[in-house]
Design a protein that fits this description.
With 545 residues, the chain is mainly alpha-helical. Among the domains are: 33 residues, no CATH class; 128 residues, no CATH class. 67% of the residues lie in helices and 0% in strands. It starts with a helix and ends in an 11-residue tail after the last helix.
Amino acid sequence: MNKENSKISTYGDNGDDHFDPLDMHNYRIEQLPVRDKSSFEKWLGIIGIPLSIIVFILFAVVFDLPFLQNINPENLDVKAQKEFLRIGTEAFTQSNAYMLAIFLGSIILWMTQAIPNYLTSLILIILLVLTGVLPEKEAYAQLGHPVMWLNIMSFVLASMLVETGVAKRFALWFILKFGKNAGTIFLSFIVINLILSAFISATTAKAAILLPIFMVIAAIYGARQGKTRNNFGRSIVLQNLLYINIGAGAFVTGSGANLLAAALIGGAIGGSVYFSDWLFAMFPMMVGLMLIGYILAMKVFFPLSSEERLPQIKGGMQRLNEEYVKLGKINFQEVKAIVIFLTILAFWATDRLHGISATAVAFVGAIVGLLPRIGIIKWNDVDIPWHLLLFSAGAYTLGAGLAITDLPLLSVNAFFDSIGIGDKTHFWKLYILLTGVMVFSALIFQSKTMRAMIFIPISIGVANRFGFSVISLALPVAFMIEHVYVLPFNSKPAALLYETNQYSLTDTFKYGITMMTIAWILIIVAGETWFRFLGITPNGVFAFF
């Protein structure tokens, strides 16, 4: 099939003579049709801007919130205390009002998608400056946040895997080697996703790499789009959506949101959340959760009929083998890419021993990969989504504003005082509440980074309020960031895979909400067992029951 015909073909239109279901080029991101917004999404886009403006004015000017009055500096953290002493009581109170107004207005714009996310970030950055919440130097400096640089370097490194073909070669090889039947094909994608998650900190990049491969496999086993869907297609796409996201949860470098959460927690404790700390805590849990997802998909939600377990297109797997053969023998550039990535992973995994940050390690790896003659790729080959980075910079700037005003702690104290909960609340009640709010918040929020910015500071504030270790509450909350697979708008991979038209909203909701609930139960059980063994949570087995 030539390129011209590939562009002419209608994705998913089985009546189109030009459409070849085994051509991997038909399943590239740029070939997927853009899904029209629903009437509800359009309605949200219309009301987003006026609603955010009204909320900003109400909280910045009109409302006189009691918990922002008569602030006791002794209840603030060190950074906020310094700011309080610098600008005085009245100015500090007004800064908190502006901070709350900007925070709520930004959340509305992010959730309604009334304007692009990166534009919302740019607006909130300048508003924090113009209202005096943050000095210009600190507001603009967030673009140079260590996590921002790690994100940039990670995109450079991921581009090496894509440009050299290492990622595609590995995925095809593994499927051809171990995907001998329907069951082992699904298990193969668990391994593939885990390994790619260790090296690629962008879930969208993983989805882009794997989508053409599992869509061709779906076609081989008779999966079609729309009304002719079958359980093989539903299962392979939804299982991969699950694995792409929770695979990232196994590593602190799995996504920018994980790294941001680790940075926020590290700042609160005056230390670091190491790659190895996160790995030991979450890798076995995520592997277990993937296996549970596999069993439930295959046995409960999308059981395969005897017909679906057999290839429907003769010589289908041979087409995958042809794609693999086209890659040729592994070349020197690929070998260099593999060596660089294994070295980076080794340094990340032993960061507690040598103390070199994940950002510094990624920096060196990216520099080596870009070196003339010695390196692997050129700068023009690097795919860096700057709109996502600008969005992240806005989220980090919002975090700087929350830190300097200490608004999360003030809000937490006001909330618990208003409902009459004293300082003697048991740890496990707070643990269950915070982890539950974090995981199920994914149903309404579109951005993992945004959820990290909201709920990690809150969990830190709760820990400080009740005198518990910040690690014991904030880190388990951070572990729940990657559960964004229930609805199409919950994450970019979810939106992307929904366009395949292999499953319905009902399919993704019933499978996703079940896995989300199991993940919450698992984090509770881990808090009483595995996390206690690792020293993350304190003793006291379900003492409040």
